[in-house]
Amino acid sequence: MNYTFDFNAVSLRPLIEGLVVTLELTVAANLIGVVLGFPLALLLMSRIVVIRWPATLFVEFFRCTPAIVQIVWFFYCVPMLFNVFLGSMTMGILALGLNLMAFNAEAYRAAIQAVPREQIDAGIALGLNPLQRVVYIVLPNALRASVPVLLTNGIVIFQQSALVAIVAVQDLMYQAKTLATETYRPIETFTIAALIYFAVSFPVAQVVGWLERRRQVLTS
Amino acid sequence: MTSASAPLVSIRALHKSYGPHIQVLKGLDIEMKPGERVVVIGPSGGGKSTLLRVVMGLEKIDSGSVTFGGRPYISSAGAGAKTVIDTEVRRSIGMVFQHYTLFPHLSVVQNLVLAPCKVRGEKKASAVRRAEALLERFGLAAKANAYPAQLSGGQKQRVAIARALMLDPKLMLFDEVTSALDPELVAEVEQVILQLAGQDMPMMIVTHDMWFAKNIASRVIFCAGGVVVEDGPPEQVLGAPREERTREFIDRVFHIKQ
Ligand SMILES: Nc1ncnc2c1ncn2[C@@H]1O[C@H](COP(=O)(O)OP(=O)(O)OP(=O)(O)O)[C@@H](O)[C@H]1O
Ligand SMILES: [Mg+2]
């Protein structure tokens, strides 16, 4: 290969601007996912079929279709079907946020159902009423257990957010593509973009690993 | 009838199954007097845990009834019928389990004061004072602010016992509280239970530890196949059982132990 690398040809400025947009998308989607995922998990566990069924369908739709299809679908179908026109950034946030909400709901549900039966029995034996058992035993147990999965889902969404570049949200990926075309330096540009994604994801992944190891020690 | 001889717990024709095919308790009758310490022994799967869980009010029953201190506590008219449990009576019974008993997200003191504060509305400061006194008594004062994960198995079980005692139970249930422990930690937990026995705490104990059974029991019930096979003082049931099935079981258990 006869290629001279020239990283100086790539200006960092637009990439950093793109990163800010990517982080905005990530934070907003995580707010939706972390907050609304929880009530959705409660619906998933409802004993009432007409509540549980639509919630399950919602979750499975997001889990069983590619994220890129969800984003494109949102972008083209929501305006046509519902006659609402939102900015591309809002659309991106909604698409990513709803996707994350579905995955986080599953994380919450699994964590709630993993609370050992004995913990609830101990609560009954101590005279706590059903609401107190949920508030003081089940939820604190489950929320702690779900933190590593929520964080992992959060980084996945940070990475998936690159997909919204195709619907013209000016995130890191979009800026990288533009820059690569302008500078004719795709290798350098995309390498730097990848390193930026990595620099954000990697530390969070380490934290997740640490939390999981600590949890194993704590619950054994 | 005087209150001294009136039963503390009276179990009548108790039937309990898990689903349509697993019949666990098949007509159990047990009468327990105040101050008695009943040890329940029997083969694995014989329904000992189920019996204690029923008395704790954790299980639905098919039919039969349980009264506590002369008050109706648990009843069911028949399979499929609703099990009625008086939750106020339930609050005067405490139980310690084999596993996962402490709340992992709460410190030792918080584990102890949770129920008194939330269930009885006791002031935090007063509950903490009582908790600290109890921990002191059980040799756990230094662990008051530790989390369950930082405790040994024996310490965890002692904390679980202290937590149950915070509610001044009138009956304590112990379901194999030492069988998940390393052998060297068994004694410290058994000591605490013996200490309670010295204060005339009525208790129902499931254990496979025959030494402990001998030392704590005022009465032993051998339970197998969902019925009471033999019921009597420890010298009889453990020492000179009248029933063939009891004898076989005792021989086998002692054989394994020695
Ligand atoms: N939640 C449950 N669902 C279905 N079957 C159960 C359940 N709990 C217990 N059983 C069954 O009921 C029977 C009695 O169980 P139980 O735990 O009361 O026995 P045990 O005398 O305590 O035995 P061990 O000495 O092994 O603790 C067993 O056959 C067991 O498999
Ligand atoms: Mg058992």
From TrEMBL, chain A:
Q: Where in the cell is it found?
A: Cell inner membrane; Cell membrane
| Gene3D superfamilies the record matches | MetI-like
Q: Name one Pfam family in it.
A: BPD_transp_1
Which residue stretches, if any, does this entry annotate as coiled coil?
none
* Transmembrane segments annotated in the record for this chain: 20-45, 57-76, 82-103, 149-169, 189-211
NCBIfam families listed in its UniProt record: HEQRo_perm_3TM (TIGR01726)
Q: Is Transport tagged as a keyword?
A: yes
Provide the alphabetized UniProt keywords. Amino-acid transport, Cell membrane, Membrane, Transmembrane, Transmembrane helix, Transport
Q: Where is the ABC transmembrane type-1 domain?
A: 19-208
Per the entry, what this protein does is: Part of the binding-protein-dependent transport system for glutamine; probably responsible for the translocation of the substrate across the membrane.
Identify its protein family. Answer: Belongs to the binding-protein-dependent transport system permease family. HisMQ subfamily.
Q: How does it sit in the membrane?
A: Multi-pass membrane protein
Signal peptide positions are none
The protein here is known as Amino acid ABC transporter permease
- SUPFAM superfamilies hit by this protein: MetI-like
Automatic annotation (TrEMBL), chain B:
Taxonomically, the superkingdom here is Bacteria
Check the record and name the Pfam families matching this protein: ABC_tran
Chief subcellular location: membrane
Keyword Cell inner membrane on this protein?
Answer: no
- Tell me where it resides: Cell membrane
Q: Which UniProt keywords apply?
A: Amino-acid transport, ATP-binding, Cell membrane, Membrane, Nucleotide-binding, Transport
As for family, the record states:
Belongs to the ABC transporter superfamily.
State what protein this is by name. Answer: Amino acid ABC transporter ATP-binding protein
Species of origin reads: Shinella pollutisoli
Organism lineage: Bacteria, Pseudomonadati, Pseudomonadota, Alphaproteobacteria, Hyphomicrobiales
